[in-house]
Structure formats: structure tokens, C-alpha cells
Amino acid sequence: MPFDYSLDFKNIDFRQHPELYRVGKGEQGVLLVEPYKSEILPYWRFKTPEIARESSEKIYEMFLVYLKQDDFIGADMARKFIQMGYTRSRRYANHKTGRKYKQNSETSGSKKEILPYEEDPVKAESAAIFKAKWIQAKTNEKYQELLARHKQMYESISPL
User: InterPro entries per the record (predicted)?
Assistant: First the structure.
């Protein structure tokens, strides 16, 4: 099932209401789902490889703690933050400003113009650090088990 953006995220504690959580695709909901966003976000950084390593390791430790507690949503949110560390640092590795598209009011509604590619090896290294942790998280056996269980319990579509 797709991620449900219609929920009242400001007032839902997903630790208390796991039945409302949907995995969605990629990083969907990473900056919405509480209390996990507030627990993980302070550690999410990628400016340099050293900072990215420290950040990815801390968030991966949190991922493992959530798994140990059988807290799938916490583990999934940690996985999403790690994935977002990869995608954001990769974007900055490709585009110095972090913007992929040229901002041009004349082209609104039409095809966006992609800014020139400028490789930043420092951000590319940060991206590689997060990518390795992301793969480690998403392939974790217990994570896969909890994902399947969550989908079976809460995301299965009942026949009409």
C-alpha cells in the first residue's frame, strides 16, 4: 500500500499506533513519522566523509536497537534516514548547490532543465558511506522478517 500522506502526522504517535504506518516507497514519510523523526534526525549529517561515517554508524546502531525491540517502524525510519543520507549526499556530489533542476519561472509546467553535473569527490565519499549502511540495513534478516510481518498485519488488502 502507498504511503498515506493524509494522516494527521502532528498528532499521531506511531509507536502507539503502528497500524497506521505504511512503508511506502524509498524515503516516503521520513520527516513526518513521530516520535522516530525526532529521535533520529539530530544524528543525520553528511557534510564530510567523517561526519557521514559517524552519522551512518549512529543511525545504524539505532536501527539495531529498534530491531532488538521488535520495533519495525523505528527500524524502517532509521533505514529511511540512512537511505536519505545516501540520496542527499549523492545529489550534492552531482550538483554543488544540491539542486538538480534549474529554477526558471518561464519553464514552469514544462520540462525542467537539469543543471550541469559537477562531481564532488568529498560528497561522493559521504554517499558511498551511507550507501553501504543502507544496503546493510535493508538486507538485514530481522528487518526483512519484521517488514513481512508488518505488511501482513497492517497492509494486506482484504477481499471485498
Answer: DUF4385
